[in-house]
Every structure is written in structure tokens, then in C-alpha cells.
User: What shape does this take?
Amino acid sequence: MQKEQNLSKNQKIIFDLIDKSGGPMKAYSILFNVQKKGIKAPLQVYRALDKLVEIGKIHKIESRNAFIACQNSSCQVSKATAFSICESCENVSEISNLKLSKYLSNFSDNSGMKYNKYNLEFFGLCKKCKSK
Amino acid sequence: MQKEQNLSKNQKIIFDLIDKSGGPMKAYSILFNVQKKGIKAPLQVYRALDKLVEIGKIHKIESRNAFIACQNSSCQVSKATAFSICESCENVSEISNLKLSKYLSNFSDNSGMKYNKYNLEFFGLCKKCKSK
DNA sequence: TTATAAATGTTATATTATTACATAACGTTA
DNA sequence: TAACGTTATGTAATAATATAACATTTATAA
Ligand SMILES: [Zn+2]
Ligand SMILES: [Zn+2]
Ligand SMILES: [Zn+2]
Ligand SMILES: [Zn+2]
Assistant: This one.
């Protein structure tokens, strides 16, 4: 949370909303929720989201076109992200597993490619949904 | 390629196009390319894509909203996918690394969640783009 | 055959994201 | 402070991606 004071007005409004929601939010749902605060256009939302992603305050859940607050304090830049997604209730949480992140950050193959970023999304059923 | 004969007409047209392209293709670019073959509406494309993804003939590159033919013959169902993406030239290739796929397929944590599917996207610079 | 599922065709619409252009606020340093 | 470059904002229009709803046809198989 150390960077919060650096956020601009719109960035702060939008980050606070996502953070408080506790889960992933979609851009137009964010827009709807911040209209009372004067943010009226999609572009204002997307610009703030872009910046927040860039500095690692939020991450994009690519398979859901949604944005979630970083739940991992060590994750200042979004270079190594992993999520678990329940395909039933759509609950999403960020995985912070040191072994996993080390394994993936050090991954290399014979393609000659230098990897400097990854995003991993696991899918399944959460505890609750499994027991239904 | 053993399932190709099972594909319907539209599915086959669209799979062949993606497969021949050798890289990821976007839905509306596919649509444009198959209009001469009588596929005129987005929904016709998306339905074929959905089916092809379901049976593992193609995969969706989530971060790019694009679809690529499976380059891994063992990958009949899209339950464990990994890609490398060049952020400069947008070249994409499917990673088939047994160690990686075993590691991820067996991954579990203390969340109580049962993972039955994952998608991993690595980003970086390919050989060509690195040397520029 | 008959019924069941799978695929297709068509129109309209919903959702997600960007372009283009103008203005304002902020931070740095001369 | 003044001037400059950078970052953020405001606004309108539009592009790109994806789905809903409904009618019809084709394939599969009991
Ligand atoms: Zn994070
Ligand atoms: Zn669940
Ligand atoms: Zn594959
Ligand atoms: Zn490249």
C-alpha cells in the first residue's frame, strides 16, 4: 500500500473501489460505480486501469476481462502473476506461492526466448462449490 | 489431426484457415477471410471457435483475444496450455514441455481448490527481436 | 422412421476497448 | 517565478470483441 499516495485522483477512486470490492471487477461495472464521483467516460476508467496495472496495484484477469486488486504485497510490478479461478462462482484469488513463482520465473526452454513476464490462471472448483 | 474428419463444414473451414496461417488469428480477421466461403456472420465464427477450443484443436490466447491451432499433437482437450508470446513481433508459440506441464498439472496449494485446468502465458522477446 | 442432438443462418445487440483531440495539473530546473 | 516537458484529465466518437434470440437444417442413432 506504500504507493497509494502517488496515485492521481481518478486512479485512487478506481483503485479504492476495486480493492474494497474484494474480487474482480469489470471495466464498465467500475464505470457505473464511479459515475457519482465524476468519472463519466470509459476512457477515464481504462486509463486509470492501465496505470494501476502498470504499477502493480491491480492485475488483469485475462480470461475474464476483469481487474482485481493485488493481494500480494510484494507484487509491485505485474511481472509474475498467478490466479485461481472458480468456474462455478467465479471467485478469483491471487496465488502467492514462492516455489511456484521461482519455478516459473526461472523457466526457460530451447526456443531462445528470454521470458521476463508471465501470467498463469488456474481453473477449478472452490471449496464451497465442490461441496454442492 | 485425427479428429479432422469429425469437424463440421464451418469448423473445418475455420480450423484450416487458422492452421495454415501458422500463428494466432483474431475472430474478425477470420470472419473477413472466410466470407468468400459463405461464412458471413460473427456468430458463425464464434460458434466454430468455441467448438474447436472445446475439442482442443485450437487454443485461445487470452491476453490477445486470438486463436491459434494446437501445435502439440497430444493436446486433445485444452486443459493444460502454455504459450510464449513475443511482445515485440507478437509471435506466439505453444510450449510443450513435459516437466512444466507435470509441475503445473500437479500443482496444489492450501486453498482447498481442486484445479483441473490451467493456462499459462509467458512474455518476452523472441530470438529475432532480441538481436535488433 | 422418428426423435434427439448438433450445426447453421440471420438479425440485432451487448460488451469491451481505443482513437483523436483539447485542456489542465504537476514536477523540474533555469 | 517562468518555461518546459510529462502526466493526467475531459469529452465525443468509434472500433473491436462477443453474445442473445429465434428460425431452420443436417447429422446421429434408437
Ligand atoms: Zn499481485
Ligand atoms: Zn466457487
Ligand atoms: Zn495444444
Ligand atoms: Zn519477436
Remarks:
- Helices of chain A lie at 9-21, 27-34, 42-54, 98-105, 127-130.
